[in-house]
User: Fold this.
Amino acid sequence: MITLDLASTTFLLVAVCGVLCAIQLCYVFGIYNRIHRHFKKKNEAAGTELPPLSVIIVTKDSGSALTKNLPAILEQDYPEFEVIVINDKSAGEDENILKLLSDKYNNLYHTFIPETARYVSQKKLGIAMGIRASRYEWLVVTEPYCCPVSRNWLRRLAEQMTPNTDIVLGYSNYLPQKGWFARRITTDSFFHSLRYLGMALAGNPYMGIGRNLAYRKSLYEKHKGFADHLQLQRGEDDLFINAVANKYNTRVASGEDSIVRMPVPPYKRIWFEEKMNAMVTGHYYQGMARFINAIDTWTCGLFHLATISALAFSIIEQQWIGMGLIVLFWLIRFISTMTVFHHTSRDLNENLCCIFPLFDILRPLWSLVRQMQYLLRKKKDFLRK
Assistant:
């Protein structure tokens, strides 16, 4: 009786592993592999015209970042563009730096958020002010800590600005840096990009990141800006794109030149707060994206648990055929996942292959921990200030 129970348990676990493996492969080849396929076509530009652009940046106490990164944006190899910087009541030397740079660059304009501005997210207000001051239809949003890797960054974005396109999504990540924390958050950002860019390429865009993002001014005005989520501190990028993007109006920039990078945060709590804010806005997503992402995370975790359990039962019961099937499922998923991650990381100039296996195992656990931490936070922590 015990033998029968163990044998049936082993069979059940093998079947579960097979189903979970099939689900994971759908994500690997249906979503995560799309960036690699898209980048292979990088020479096939979607558009031939280069529309004039307005680049919008909101800064707060980031003087050194402006000194380093703003010239790289102002000196882009692009026929016609302006850069609008909104100063959010900086206590540092941001205003002095902006004045010096504006004397050198004719296409730089800057203003500030009034001290009396209240009852709205300062980041959203800053972007709204920049959009109102902009002269052109196409807007490019980035941050003072971000630096394009190439002088052709704006060109790569503009290549996707076809007459039927309203939104262009771009890839961003941290600068290479030694240490476990730096490699972990870089891998996390890379994987997050595989998700939202891959979903956009699959015809289901659900978010964007305001470090490397472009959209039409008319789209912003038609949607009445950020009016539907003013109660939140953030959401000026992902919630806005979630509300206005569809498979017909959204494209993804391709090529190494389309990438922007930023330094690793000096303190872990900065990155932690970013993840918490992303979790908050994620609860407001329309559509199925939130559930699709959750299914991927939990089927990944369950696959690892089921694999370990099935191996243990098959060894105890000496079910060698079952053990062989388990090993086969694990190898198929592992090789498929690592191959896609390797090719895509090479396309995006990331050196993360050594950490992929560990990240793949730990990401469901990290997700669970963040969910628990989110539940312990007060809701007012994420409301506008």
